Amino acid sequence: MTIKDAPEEWEIRATETPFTGNKTSVRTDEVVMPDGSVVRRDYQVHPGSVAVLALDEDDRVLLINQYRHPVRHKLWEIPAGLLDVPGENPLHAAQRELYEEAHVKAEDWRVLTDVYTTPGGCDEAVRIFLARELSEADGERFAAEHEETDMEHARVPVDELVRRILAGDVHNNCLVVGVLSLVAARGGDGLDALRPAGAPWPARPFES
């Protein structure tokens, strides 16, 4: 048995979109099950996202603190954002988010991991990048708005973040997955063995 996710699509008898929002929508599909029965499945249709685990020379991760209304919390997170343009190169989107949210640039980029955030109810796919060799970005700072207007920044050592993850102090999925993937990569073949930044991403195909 090969432990590797594989694409597959079951027959859809009917589909409708009862809600369309600014960036996402809700879709209802009537899906044929293996026994021939037909069931309705509701899920959020999402453009996809990128996130950046930016690691500085002191082994600290760049974090932002932002209000998230659905969960009624201010969460510590890594920089992240939507893939607003269909087919957008995820590396370019990640570089933009790091600049806009932290006014930072990085010279070394690699793919840390790819995840489906909530595959039982949303088709969102996220690519988490590892960014190293950090420095302050050139030019003016990005004009923040909405939830980003009171955003805080911090740089936290990797070991402390692992402790806070396991203690249940931080909950953002990209932060948790990114930090634990970083630690796992270090304990395995090393960070230089990670996939290159332009590695294919079947969940969200893009042009190089």
Automatic annotation (TrEMBL):
Chain ranges passing through the membrane: none
PROSITE patterns for this protein: NUDIX
Domain Nudix hydrolase: 44-178
Keyword Nucleus: no
Keyword annotations of the record: Hydrolase
Xref: Pfam families: NUDIX
Name assigned to this protein: NUDIX domain-containing protein
Organism: Streptomyces nogalater
